[in-house]
Each structure stands twice: as C-alpha cells, then as structure tokens.
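User: Quick one: structure for sequence A, then sequence B.

Assistant: Sequence A:
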Amino acid sequence: MRPHDSRETAVAGEVRSGIPKRAIILLSTAAFSSSINIRACDPLLPQIAQSFSVSVGSASLIITTFAVGYGLTQLLFGPVGDRYGKYLVVAVTTILAGIATAFSAFMPTLAALTGARFMAGAFAAAAIPLAFAWIGDAVPFERRQAVLARFLSAQMSGIVLGQAFGGLIGDRYGWPRVFLIVGAVHCVAGLAMLWELRTNPGAQPPGATSTLRLETVVTGTLAIARRPWVRVLLIAVFVEAFAMYGAFAYIGADLHTRFGLSFTSVGLVMCTYGTGAIAYSLSARHLIGRLGERGLIIGGGGLLALAYLCLAAVPGVAFVPPIMMLLGLGFYMIHNTLQTNATQMAPEARGLSVSIFAFALFMGQSMGVAMAAPMMDRFGARPIYVISAVLLPLLALWLRSRLSVRPTG
C-alpha cells in the first residue's frame, strides 16, 4: 500500500468525520442502478437481434454505444461534480438516466434503440466514478481500498441482478419490459438522493472547488494526463476493459447458440460472474493484507487467463458457473487495485481525474466490443476468449513492473 500522498493535505475537507451511513447507502443505490443498466443487455442480445432481424454482432451496437456515451460524458461530469457537488450531480443524472432507459422500451428500430441507449449511457455515467471520487474525498488513502471494495458490493449486486433479471424478464415478457423496470430503479434511486440532500448536511455539496470553464477543464485534464503514473493507469484500464469486456459481452450469445440455453438460463449463469466479484469485495481486506497490490494484479491476471481458456474449451454448460465466478474474482483483483490508485491521481481535482479514468475504461470497452463483433459473427466467441486469455496476463505483468516506479509523495 502506498504511503499517504502529501498533496492530500492541501485539499479542504479531505477527511470528514461522522459521515452518515445513509448518505453512502443511497449513493450505493445509484451505483447499483447504473450497474444493472450496464449489463442488463448482455443476455438480451440474441432476442434483440431476432426482434430487429439482424445478427448478434450488429445488435451488439447497443452495448457499444451505451459504453461510448458512458465514456464520453465522463469528461463533462467530472468537472461538473467538482464544481457543483458530486452527490447532487449523481442524483440528477441518475434520474435522467432512468428516463432515457425507460424510453428505450418504445424504440421501433435498432437505430432508434441505439440512440436511446447512447443517452442512457451518457447520463448513467456520473454515478459510479463520482461515487468513487466522493468516497476519495471522505476516506484517507490507507483505508480507501477496503472501503471501495465494500462499496463494490452494491455495484456488483447490480451486475448480478442485471444479468439475471435481464434474461428472466426478457424471456418472459420481452426486452422492452427490462428497460422500463431498470428505468424505474434509476428514478427511485435519484429521487431518494435528492431527498437526502435536503435533510442531511453531510451529503451537501461543499461549494465550488473549481471554475467550470472549458479552458480550465482542458488545462486541468492535460495537466493530470502529463503525470507519468497517470498515463500508466489510463493505459492499463483501457487495455483491461478492451480485453475483458470485448470477450465478456458475447458470453451470453455464445451460451445461447452453443448450448441452446434460454435467455433466463443465460442470465442466471452469467450472474455468477457477479458472485465472484462479491466474493472479492467481502474478502478484500484479507487479500490486500496477504497479497499486496502486486499479488492481486498477478493473481487476477492468472485467473482471467485460466477462466477465458476454460470458456473456450468447456464441454458442457455445467462447468460455466464456476468459470464465471473466476472471471469476476480475477477481474476485480486487478480492477479494484486500479480504481484505488485512480482516486489518488489528482486529489486536488478528484472528480475530474476519476472521470478521466472512467473515460479510458469505457472507451476500451466500447472498442473491444466493436472490434470483436465481426469475429463473433464469422467464427463465434471462442477465438475472442483466447485473445483475451493472452492479453490480460500480459497486462498484469506489465502493470506489476510499473508499480515500482509509482510516485510515493
């Protein structure tokens, strides 16, 4: 664990005392709703493809555009959160994400649905990175990784429920009903946060910390990106998302076509990925103390390689749930380490810096899904799994080597 960064001492309100748990719980509900939205479409791709008479690769455009919208607006919401208050921005954008998601249910063409998913992704983008930045403002670095890992429980529960719920509701009532319900979850979470802002001083925006001008945002972004360690983190999370989610997005369609699973079964099998991630969040304190950052990164890369190779060769669906659990555990061993370091890239502009990190994450995801689409349509998912099984451990080895040159103060 890296020593306490001396720059934090210059940040007003860096460590608050007595933060009401209710504020954090409600912030977690916004992350929960955003996570449901991110992954709910995975088990629905074959059904949506059939509905619009297109290939699965073409239907995956709704995942790509959601990720693009999610990534692009990070560069907006980061400085907006720093200027007007992270909690307020999360509350408002969560409601707007719910409205855009509900409208997705009524789109008559794939092009229209793609546009609606872009808007949903754009507004859902604020919740998780600004939540991490808010926690970064409130919790000292030496305690932060364990706190963020526990916060991941809400995020991972959303992924678990999103995949299971998407498959179950889509199978029984059709994919439009999925978007209506997910939209309602967003709106409830956002309204609850607005109520919290009225009643809880601990969640109130602390006031302006920066001026919201394009010149200031661009200058701040460039200043952050010039730091060598920041560039390492941005490259790492981009490659991580490219390799991980470029393959992950097609697991549901692969299970449906290779083993003939219903959409309900696909969703239930895929949600075991989230249980692996939750297992990490519950054991994070022990794993961090025992393995350290280097051990988490190398162990995570090895588990991801093993899991994707097993997916490529698995003879029957009974073997898939434990493989999915390994994917969830391995991914968050690496990703939680990256997230924790991202909260410390620029403590003086934490909302902007975490948003740049999230931008790189979702640009990597969208590019990975888009580049894998032609391969999926022509050869199926197995070659994509193998490519990811090679890239992810190589990334882990490179990242571990770069930890030795990380700044310490």
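Sequence B:
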Amino acid sequence: MEQIPMVDLKSQYLKIKDEVDAAIQEVLDSTAFVRGESVSRFQRHFEEYLGIKHVVPVGNGTDALQIALMALGLRPGDEVITPTFTFIATAEVVALLGLTPVVVDVDPHTFCMTAEAVEKAITPKTKAVVPVHLFGQNAEMEAILKLAEKHHLFVVEDACQSIGSEYHFSDGIVKKSGCMGHIGCTSFFPSKNLGCFGDGGALFTDDDELAAAARSIANHGMTVRYHHDRVGVNSRLDSIQAAVLDVKLKHLDEYVANRRAAAAFYDAALSDMPQITIPRKSTRSTHSYHQYTIQVPEEKRNALQNFLRENGIPSMIYYPIPLHLQKAYADARYKEGDFPVAERLSKVVLSLPMHSELKEDVLSFMTDKIRTFFSVG
C-alpha cells in the first residue's frame, strides 16, 4: 500500500477543484486581495452556519484568541484559567498580554477541562476561562457556563479543533461549538475540519460591543480610518483564503460526517483490544474528530508509533509535554505531579490518521497492523 497521509488535503482538493479554482480566479480577476468581497461573503455564510450574529475573520487562530482577550479589556495580572493539556497557543496569548495563566487538569477520557477543576482554580483575580474543545468535542460547557455566571467570569471558547460539533444543553437547546461563551475562536489552518490553503482564523460572538471591539483591534485599533481608538494589531483573513473557505464551508457537514464514519470504523476495529482505550464521546457533545486519539500503555506507545511508521502509517503525539512542564512556562506554582491526568496522557496518547477522505481499505489496513503489533508485542 502507498504511503498513507496523516491528512489528505490533495484528495479533498481534487474533489472540489473546479469550485475552488473558480473562486480563486474570481479574486485574481478582482485584484481585491485584502478585504475583498470574498471575505465579507464568507463572513456572512459562516455566521449563518454557526447561527451567531458576528464573525470577525482574522489572520490565524492564535490571533483570534489574543484579540478575543484584548476585546474583553483584561489587564496585566488578571488570571485566565485554561487546561494544561492543549496546544501552546492557548497559554501563549495569555502570557503575551501580561495576564496570568492558571492551568487545570483535564478529563482522562474526553481530554477537555472539567468544571470541577475550574471551580477549584478560581480566585479573586480570576477574570476569564478558556475551555479548549480538544480533538473535536466540546468541554462540559453547561457546568462551566454556570460557574462563570456565578463568579462573573468571561468565557472564551477555543474551538480551533471543534468546528462542526454541537453541544446539547439539558433544556434541549443545541449550540454550535464556539457559540456558547462570550466569544468563540477558531483556526482555519489547512488540516482543520474547515481549513484554508494557508493561515486563517476567526472569532465569533453574539455581543455587539465585543464584536465591534474585536473588529477594531484586528484593524490597528481603528473604527474610522486613521483614527486609532485603542491599541490594536494587524490581523486579517486575506481574500483568496476566504474564497477557499467559502467553498469548503458548503462541504463542511459532509467532511465531518466522513470523519465520524472513519472514527466509527476505528471504534469497531479497536474497541475489543484491552491494550487500547478508544476516544470516549461526551454525553452532551457531538464529535467532529479533528483527531482520533487512542491511549496505549506508556511502555508500548513509542514502539507502536515506530511499528506503524515502518509500515507506512503516520501517527502523531498530541501533546508530548503539558503546558505546566514546558520550559517557556515554568512557574513556581506548578511542579511535576500536580496534574496527573495530563501528565499521564502525554505519555500514552497517539493520534491516528484522520481526515475526510479515509477509505475503508486504508482503515482496515491500519487497524490490522495495530492488531498485529499487539498480538506479537
């Protein structure tokens, strides 16, 4: 079998090539490469998809997180709670703004922060919570939102991996991922469920004032040209990337359905293996499977990864070092052993190929190889 990609962007592109090429050509013909019509068109369509009032397109997902925190008016020293098991950007923007990151442990099965952990971390300095909807499903938002309301905290959702999933509240209300807190943020990095052909991101909110602040911050702090009302940054989604995203947005639900089908195949093929813990789905959240992440015994994880590589199967470790053990974020408040779930996960997780173009024969080949490893290992 040919080398298997972790993410098959080429096959995905070839299926929609005519649509994408026409959309890009339209931008080239217009020469409106920055803030062109394709950006406002995608913005409108994404607002409709999410069922939210305001989408603010920006340069990437990290910018979205930073601009969101800036729009909230947080001040140096304010504490922001975020999980320790996540991509570095979540804490990075907190530190860059002079805020104080406060990390918490995660659920061992969903990989997301829990309301219980958040509650224990709240202090008089806490001003915001950033739940990360890791690998494609939402954190326990109902409980987190209740805590935030009780303690008057902002909630900024990191939905960079979860676009396409939904959260079902106990009263029957259903919300798209990223649309439950004060502001949601996402990334359009090419490998995401909704990815462009470069860098891109967006933040979204139902709050008119926060949306206006975010738009201004993303545009050098301007509301009127050359009138700078606040300190801002330069972050924008360019017209070509917006054109690509507008095409792919039409196919997003299909992409997510394909990912779920691939996950179901993995589940069926691996669930009877005692050495493997398959991803557990939340009872409240659907899963968009940005990643399909299994847990294997620590002493077997690296050997399994090497075995798969030797057989032409890629895999990734997300994430090998929790935030509190990263050199750049060393903090006297935290030490090894403080967050046992995250520390254990970093030693046992392994993400298998997951994308919208996975075929059954490839899935069968990969899962057979995994079974072979454990049968002889």
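The chain has a mean pLDDT of 97. Residues 252-270 form the longest helix (19 residues).

User: Thanks, that's what I needed.
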